[in-house]
Design a protein that fits this description.
With 214 residues, the protein is mostly helical. The protein has seven helices and no strands. Helix 1 runs antiparallel to helix 3, helix 1 runs antiparallel to helix 5 and helix 4 packs antiparallel against helix 7.
Length: 214
């Protein structure tokens, strides 16, 4: 007989396994496209190119990315129903990403390819970590730290991309508008601050407390 705890582990694992497949495939397909643009046409084209939204393969993954933000926000509901602790970073991040993604996809703004590819990549690693833990595997704490550092790096790169879009937009080489860049920059900067705070509280501060207790 399989124990009840084991059943719960595998149910969670199977649910997360299906969930992790999506960002992995998304990261591979959009990453391959972005790498091709970078290698053949350079950084500027990879940032300003709008064909990411209309390419034969990339357009599907761009559309799927935008739609995926709704069920990701739905995860917040399950956290509330399970009476688990819901931190500000979680619901703020999911709500603002959903609104900004839909807002930007409509206008096919420059930089979208970078934003989506980075997000797919980070989520692929993050949900793989959750799936392993749900299956009962002991995963090193360093893996969790790496994920948070990857998210912090993603926010920094997002700010750099916004700066490049704004600079090249002045010369008519990037399609965007000032309002979008302002909102995107504020969003990425706020994420950067919140993820840095989370990293300090979850890892550095906790480690110091454990050493004092010892």
């Amino acid at each position: 007989m399989i124990g009840e705890k084991t059943k719960i582990h595998w149910m969670r694992f199977n649910r997360l396994r299906r969930k992790v497949s999506f960002p992995i495939f998304g990261a591979v397909r959009t990453g391959a496209y972005m790498l091709y643009i970078l290698m053949t046409k350079g950084l500027k084209q990879s940032v300003c190119d709008q064909s990411f939204y209309i390419g034969p393969v990339s357009k599907f993954w761009a559309y799927a990315f935008v739609l995926s933000k709704a069920p990701e926000l739905g995860d917040t509901i399950f956290i509330i129903l399970r009476k688990q602790k819901l931190i500000f970073l979680h619901w703020y991040h999911h709500i603002t990403v959903l609104l900004y993604s839909w807002y930007s996809y409509k206008d096919m703004v420059a930089g979208g390819g970078w934003f989506m590819t980075m997000n797919y990549g980070v989520h692929a690693v993050m949900y793989s970590y959750y799936a392993l833990r749900a299956a009962g595997f002991r995963v090193s704490r360093k893996f969790a730290m790496f994920i948070t550092l990857s998210q912090i790096t993603q926010m920094l790169i997002g700010c750099v991309i916004n700066y490049l879009v704004f600079s090249w937009m002045q010369h008519g080489q990037c399609h965007s508008h000032v309002q979008n860049i302002i909102w995107s920059s504020l969003m990425y900067l706020s994420y950067f601050v919140l993820f840095c705070h989370f990293f300090f509280e979850a890892y550095i501060g906790k480690t110091r407390k454990e050493r004092k207790d010892d």
